[in-house]
Amino acid sequence: MMSAVLTIAEAGRRLAAKQLSPVELAKTHLERIRRLDPQLNAFLLVTEERALADAAAAETRQMSGQRRGPLDGIPIAHKDIYNTAGIRTTAHSKLLQDNVPARDAHTVKKWADAGTVMLGKLATHEFAFGGPSFDLPWPPARNPWNTDHFTSGSSSGTGAAVAAGLILGGTGSDTGGSIRGPAALCGIAGIKPTYGLSSRAGILPLAFTLDHAGPMAWTAEDCALLLQAMAGHDPEDPASVDRPVPDFTAGLGKGVKGLRIGVVRHFFETDHRASDATRAGIDVAMDFFRKEGAEVRDITLSPAADYHAVGYLLMVTEAFALHAPWMRERFMDYGELFRDRVALAATVSGPDIVQAVRRRRVLCREMAEAMANLDIIVSASQPGEAPRIDSLTKWANM
To answer: How many CA atoms does the CB half-sphere of 171 hold within 13 Å?
Structure first.
């Protein structure tokens, strides 16, 4: 049996050299899912027949010298808000437990066209908001490093599946931390791309102006390869940007000499104090970058609470705008956590929303001005280590 911790880049090189069979690779991961997922709950649906068909097609291309690129034959899975044609897509909710889309999401099709092997659909939090919830048709995903602990969310299944070696990469979405949180607590890599870079068409929305589609994998290089296959203009997404897609792997291996890094230290030292280990980890990382030739300096922005208040108010009101028709008819079919959080938005006034939109514009300008002489801004993606999953209250993971 092959190692289950291959990166996408390494697996791709072995596939290209015909040292690895796409079919055997898929079978190995399907067996690992059968063995480990009953304890992890990362998958809502395993599509074994589809996976083996995808793998067989990839192997035919491999043997004929017609591989489509670095993702051809790579085992992946999709967060269960990504529509998959003819395959159940539920958003981890009773409301959509029998929903079978007729079309793939734009990014699902792009990954399929790149030759990926789809192993199934992954757990999320209900409609990609909050969690963990224990009153839904499927249980929440568990952290594979210790199943008593939380994955963060909402791309919880993707984080767990990558960390456990069930898949080599997968799709996530990030509205208020839903890629970055599981990547941090599951010890993997993930990227929330620039707004408009990856199409959201065919992805069940949470908040129209805040949703981002992005990849999760073991390494930054793997995320770059996955993002390369996701990015690009899509006229069906009104927010999609029509511009050339850069080569996301071009800068890999070049080092950080001359990189300008700004550290928003007050975000994780005073505004929302992170754990001792998290702060120490950031300090060690910044010391490393300095020694490698990067310029590192502290910067000051508005308090983290300002960013959070604006983001949360807009997220919950946009979610309510989407779900209000269903909530009027099927309120109790939602899980308690989702319905209680989102229903609160019914009390938000029009002037409150206008002020939040105005304040967002000010904060965006502040961030753009801070970035004018920087390449990277650093803060903590999570305030500490993964908490026990049974310790979280309804309002804890917001």
So the answer is: 35
Given a cut of 70, the residues of the chain with pLDDT beneath it are 1-4, 395-398
Q: What angle do CA 120, 125, 128 make, to 5 degrees?
A: 90
Q: Residue 155, exposed/middle/buried by CB under 10 A (0-12, 13-18, 19+)? A: buried
Residue-level pLDDT at 130: 85
DSSP per-residue string spanning 174-243: ESSSTTHHHHHHHT-EE--PPTTSB--TTB--S-TTT-EEEEEESSHHHHHHHHHHHBS--TTSTT---S
The vertex-56 CA angle with 100 and 110, nearest 5°, equals 50
Kindly report the length of the chain.
398
At 13, which amino acid appears?
A: R
Active site residues: 79, 154, 178
pLDDT at 2: 38
Cα-Cα-Cα-Cα torsion 43, 191, 177, 238, nearest 10 degrees, comes to -100
- What is the pTM assigned to this prediction? 0.97
Integer Cα distance of 310 and 376 in angstroms: 22
